[in-house]
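[Q] Does anyone have a clean structure-token version of this?
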Amino acid sequence: MSETVLIANTGRETGSASARRLRANDEIPAVLYGHGMTPLHISVARRDLRTALSGSAGLNTVLDLTVDGTAYPAIIKDLQRHPVKRNVSHVDFIQINLSEEITVNIPIRLEGEATAVAAEGGLVDPAMDTLEVVTTPRNIPDEIVIDVSRMDMDTVIHLADIELPDGVTATADDDVALVTVLFIRAEELESDAEPDEVEEGEEGEEGEGAEGEEGADGESADAAEGDGGKDASDSE
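[A] Here you go.
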């Protein structure tokens, strides 16, 4: 578990105008709540928040959120971003009890090289980027590592196939797929393309035939028109 001290400022006014002023000064509006406490409207320095979350635990970092000299064990419950700039615009901190279980999402990292899959033209595909687990704050793992080096084309790694750290329980069913294999055969791509090529060729031949017939009809029409002109001159 990673614990980091983060200093929060109190006394901020609520409302969009106040929030804009804070952001202009590189302060992020935030709120702290949980365990029956009255929500505290606070703000944190953008640089301090970035530093606090830069460790291996990332968003799951357990914080000693210090407000007016009182340290609250807390984690980030929700982090809002600007829709265009993507920088953090608001943070929800939730106070936690270090002895009570909480639900968090742990990032999944694939390890190893699936040589058997690569040899067959396959691609290892993570079916999930994170895994939701229940654990105490002190047991939150930084990541879930899955070894894919023994995978072949028929392998699917399910939740039941991996070993979670002690004190960590996944909320998903054991049969949920975590890693699968993608494969598209080259000959399948070629066979899919061939009918189109044949149809295009047939269409071209048909078009040429139609044009030929049309040309013949045109020549016949010209000839008939010429004959008609000759008959007319003869009659004159």
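[Q] Thanks! Anything notable?
[A] The chain has two domains: 3-96, 103-182.
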